[in-house]
Amino acid sequence: MSVFFNRAGLWLPVILYMLVFCPLNSKAQKTNAEIVLTNRQLNEKPHEFYIAGVVDQRPDRSAIALLLPSPGNLPAAKYKADLQGGVAVALKQFADYAIPVNNTLRPIGIRIKKLKLIETAMTDGRVEGRLEIQLWFELKKDDGNVHLMDYPAATTYYRSTTQQYDTGVLISRALMAGLDFFNKWINREADTNIKLAKGVRLIFSDYSEQPEGDTIYYSAKRPLSWNDFQEKAHGGKYIAEVLPGFGYTEQVEVVKSVVIVKISMRVFLPKSAAWVKPEGRNSYALNHEQRHFDIVAIVVRHFKEALTAMKLPADNYDGYINVQYLDSYREMNQLQEQYDNETNHGMNQYYQQEWNRKIDGLLLRD
Questions:
Q1: How many other C-beta atoms are found inside a 10 Å radius of the C-beta of residue 7?
Q2: Secondary-structure class of domain 49-192 per CATH
Q3: Is the pTM of this model over 0.70?
Q4: Which of 49, 134, 136, 275 could bridge 231 with an S-S bond, Cβ 3.0-4.6 Å?
């Protein structure tokens, strides 16, 4: 038995992005006050997703900002400032305003990996501020979320000790840039990225080889002949033997958010694994061996029918195909054993005729 697996690979990049903002002149941040984000909607309305949840996964869950008082004289002690309502709550409220919730779209979760703003006194008397963020976007699913991309960004600003500065505006702009970047990314990727696929479609075909080599690929127009039995005859009481099997190859592409899986079925019989004794070369014995080949073709039809009846998940369709392949392979072995047992390897002519009728009836369903 061989499984022929020729899976098309899809490259799903992790994107890094750096932002640089100019200094902001606005209302001063009050010492020890909470940071308030500035709400506004994305300029480009999202059509592919909404934010279903925000989780704070920063290694350090302390306040997001260490700031120097403004106005103030340096050196001065830094004070801590945090987002109003807490990081996860503030970002979820911010995201819901920027991207109105639409439950008919893809649910996206955000994991906050980094959100830190630190001001530092410089030797020239100015204050340097550096904001670093890292957002982790994932597609939320019942059976486990799927990571889509990371968004890291950083911005640096400089101010005098007397300059007014609104850190809420700064952080809001950085977060908005992250949401806007993800919106553009998912718009670009939605139709062709397998992680964003919404369904699976199977397309089956039967492989044939021209010109024919050592392997015979099943076709109703190509029955076995004794010339195909090229292995040296074995000892024992049986007069002939064939060892047919089946496998498949896959080609995968994503079209309009649907995973198209093209499966080429291969019902095969190696000539080098088929043998016959001189006294066995008659039409009755050849028919018995042909029926072994036919049984595999019938099992492959069951394989196709079983997969076609399934609702395959886009993120694990191959697991279902692999399991069904193993089930069908077991079915093939069981049917081959049953066929040989009931016909006594073809020596029981009555049961051989019964199996001939049974196999012909099943083949006519194709």
A1: 11
A2: alpha beta
A3: yes
A4: 275
